[in-house]
Amino acid sequence: MEAIRIITLLAVYFSLPVTQAQTKKTPSLIPSQSVSVAQGQVARWAGNCLRCSLEKRAWAPVNGTCYYPVDMDMKPGAYTISRRTTGGKLETATLQVGFKECVQEDLKNFPKQEYVNVSAQNQARATKEASLVNPLISFQSKERPAVFDLPVGKPAHNLPKGEGNFGACRTLNGQPRDRHTGQDYPVGMGKPVLSIGNGRVLLVANHFYSGNSVYIDHGNGLISEYFHLKSFSVKANQTVTKGQSIGSVGETGRVTGPHLHVGVRWHGACINPGYLLIDPSDMPAVN
């Protein structure tokens, strides 16, 4: 009787549809790769990279590593980043951008009155200057190969700690102004200003707001900016090397006193230059 019962059960089993007869297997869940960064920071994805992309923008890696600079005004949220490896594999991950509250700065009793109530003539001048600068620092679909390494070099000898005012929300005698796009360093008047890496000088000019200014292209979409200089020692289209003196610290333009202002645009993103001075392994990484 037992044998007959077993045969009957087997017959019923094999008469069922396959989806009912077989035990359904739960697929193993592979954690999605991600990295979290704050506005103005840089994320990295190391390992045999051939091409990097963030949403619809793409660029080459630096020494085989993909870097994803996050603009200080980039909307917080989740973004898709990807990389193609030298083996042809395409990988994707999530870039989670977090909000970074800006430092509030109210510059009172500003000494240069022409920057408090800006004349129509100076407004027109500033607009014209911005129309020349913006194309230089914006994202370019075709970029020169990188001629720099990370970390970059210090923009001054014995560089002091930055004043922590990158991205600051400013008012001038109570009047709102644009956010601060660079990092200020308390370097004394006349001290040498150094290029943070090898590159080519894009522009040397005296501008209304930034004063005597130098812009250097280091390849891979990395542009460094040096503002409020007392004097220049380079000219446009000149090739410079890492650590080379390009001018001296001053107080030209909209400033309250002498200091070194350093700005960085990478693939069009305005980022805190201090993040390029740290060891890349200390940057937030995809995992």
Automatic annotation (TrEMBL):
<dbReference type="InterPro" id="IPR011055">
    <property type="entry name" value="Dup_hybrid_motif"/>
</dbReference>
<keyword id="KW-0378">Hydrolase</keyword>
<protein>
    <submittedName>
        <fullName>Murein DD-endopeptidase MepM and murein hydrolase activator NlpD, contain LysM domain</fullName>
    </submittedName>
</protein>
<dbReference type="InterPro" id="IPR016047">
    <property type="entry name" value="M23ase_b-sheet_dom"/>
</dbReference>
<dbReference type="GO" id="GO:0004222">
    <property type="term" value="F:metalloendopeptidase activity"/>
</dbReference>
<feature type="domain" description="M23ase beta-sheet core">
    <location>
        <begin position="179"/>
        <end position="273"/>
    </location>
</feature>
<dbReference type="Pfam" id="PF01551">
    <property type="entry name" value="Peptidase_M23"/>
</dbReference>
<dbReference type="InterPro" id="IPR050570">
    <property type="entry name" value="Cell_wall_metabolism_enzyme"/>
</dbReference>
